[in-house]
Specification:
By secondary structure, the chain is α+β, with helices and mostly antiparallel strands. The chain has three domains: about 210 residues, Up-down Bundle (Multidrug efflux transporter AcrB transmembrane fold); about 80 residues, Alpha-Beta Plaits (2-Layer Sandwich), CATH 3.30.70.3400; about 110 residues, Gyrase A, domain 2 (2-Layer Sandwich), CATH 3.30.1360. About 55% of the residues lie in helices and about 20% in strands. The longest helix is centred in the middle third of the chain and has 54 residues. The termini are close together.
Length: about 425
């Protein structure tokens, strides 16, 4: 058994060491390249710098259900609008019942670009030649530049909702009969004036082609599509707050937070090793596994952005992981003091500590879920990382630490001073492998 345990120990060390090395340095196989894990972590606004804006939607005479539905549509339109301008890492979230917060993490670009992307949304209107308003932005579902497969012509493809599709059909029928144009306005500025070539267009879909023999260029079509999309908002939004955060402030906060967290973890490592000896060493290794898993999850889950409160959630969960190990080792020492064998004391200690650990962690997870669901802004990041950290800490404490302790016992390490400073019952002897 001792020989087998040595083999397993070598295998575990090699696998974990290779995972940490390649995870921190990255690797490349052919055309596939994996960046280091820390480069793949999505950092929040408070760490990277950037800007945020908070809007309040005007409810008007809408019912609660209609207003809630239009809020969802408005958020989706704003999301598409930001994506079309290249701000794919921006976040658009609803705050309360009538507010929308847009955050754009931004390290390198000029802050003015952030303002242009999250500035006041536009008002989109389709009018006829006489100035009559037919269609508003809430009736336009999408506008995008596409290339027709048969003619290879670049056009702008429009899609309307049911109400907008019917009105667009009636509008094009009238324009075709009168040989007049359909005018598209954004904030009362004319961005397109198109004629109707082949009669009324019903069905909720239409295309706008460029005039002249050349038609639209790709850039012209994309600009027109973005202009239409930027105005397709079901609700009027009032700007409440607009701020920027410098990238240097975020970088300083990140480096300071990581330094503080590292100092705390080192102190924990030293304490566990000094006070609990060999079990403390096993706990330190389990904590190292915990930190690597957390980094792996942060890099693998794009939906989680690491913020300053998020770092606090991770550090708090580290403390809870240590707390779980403390409970386990104290129970283990109590069982050893009664004269039980190492293996029996380990099994009894884990069994008695498990219910306490699970109960304390479950109550904390419930609180973290409430924070993640009902919190706003960076508070959600605290809830997300706390949930993730607690789950991983329970795994490392109840599975990894236990496996490492069993491995140490199977290696026939029986020196009592390596496990506890307590006295063993004199009438019983300590037996490592039983």
């Amino acid at each position: 058994m001792r020989k087998r345990s040595i083999i397993w120990l070598v295998i575990i060390v090699v696998i974990f060491g290779a995972a940490v090395y390649f995870g921190m340095t990255g690797f490349q196989i052919g055309v596939y390249r994996m960046r280091p894990l820390y480069e793949q972590v999505n950092l929040g606004l408070d760490l990277t710098g950037g800007g945020y804006v908070v809007y309040q939607a005007e409810k008007g005479d809408l019912s609660d259900d209609d207003f809630a539905a239009k809020m969802k549509t408005t958020i989706a339109v704003l999301r598409d609008r930001l994506d079309s301008k290249g701000y794919t890492e921006a976040t658009v979230v609803q705050q309360g019942s009538d507010r929308i917060r847009i955050e754009i993490p931004n390290k390198e670009e000029d802050q003015q670009a952030v303002f242009e992307a999250i500035g006041k949304p536009s008002k989109l209107e389709f009018k006829d030649a006489n100035g009559k308003l037919w269609i508003t932005g809430d009736m336009v579902k999408s506008a995008q530049a596409v290339m027709l497969s048969d003619t290879r012509e670049i056009v702008v493809q429009l899609e309307f909702n049911d109400e907008g599709g019917k009105l667009f059909g009636d509008m094009t029928a009238e324009a075709y009969a009168n040989k007049t144009n359909i005018n598209i306005y954004v904030d009362d500025v004319l961005i397109s004036s198109a004629s109707v070539k082949d009669g009324a267009i019903y069905g909720g879909r239409a295309i706008i082609s460029g005039g002249g023999s050349g038609g639209f260029t790709q850039e012209e079509a994309e600009n027109l599509a973005v202009g239409i999309s930027s105005g397709a908002l079901p609700l009027n939004l009032k700007e409440l707050e607009l701020r920027t955060i410098s990238a240097s402030l975020g970088e300083d906060a990140l480096s300071s937070s990581l330094f503080a967290g590292m100092i705390g973890i080192i102190v924990l490592f030293v304490f566990m090793l000094a006070y609990y000896r060999l079990p403390g060493l096993m706990a330190d290794i389990a904590l190292a596994v915990y930190m690597f898993i957390i980094l792996l999850l942060l890099a693998a889950i794009p939906a989680i952005q690491l913020t300053l409160p998020g770092i606090a959630g991770i550090i708090l969960s580290v403390g809870m992981a240590v707390d779980a190990n403390v409970i386990i080792f104290e129970r283990f020492k109590e069982e050893l003091a009664t004269g039980k064998t190492l293996r029996a004391a380990l099994n009894a200690g884990f069994h008695k500590a498990m219910s306490t650990i699970i109960d304390s962690n479950i109550t904390t997870i419930i609180a973290a879920i409430v924070i993640a669901v009902f919190g706003v802004g960076t508070v959600k990041g605290f809830g997300y990382t706390l949930i993730m950290g607690i789950v991983v800490s329970m795994f490392t404490a109840l599975v990894v630490t236990r496996a490492l302790m069993k491995l140490a016992i199977n290696l026939n390490i029986k020196n009592l001073k390596l496990y506890t400073s307590r006295k063993i019952a004199p009438e019983k002897s300590l037996k490592g492998g039983e």
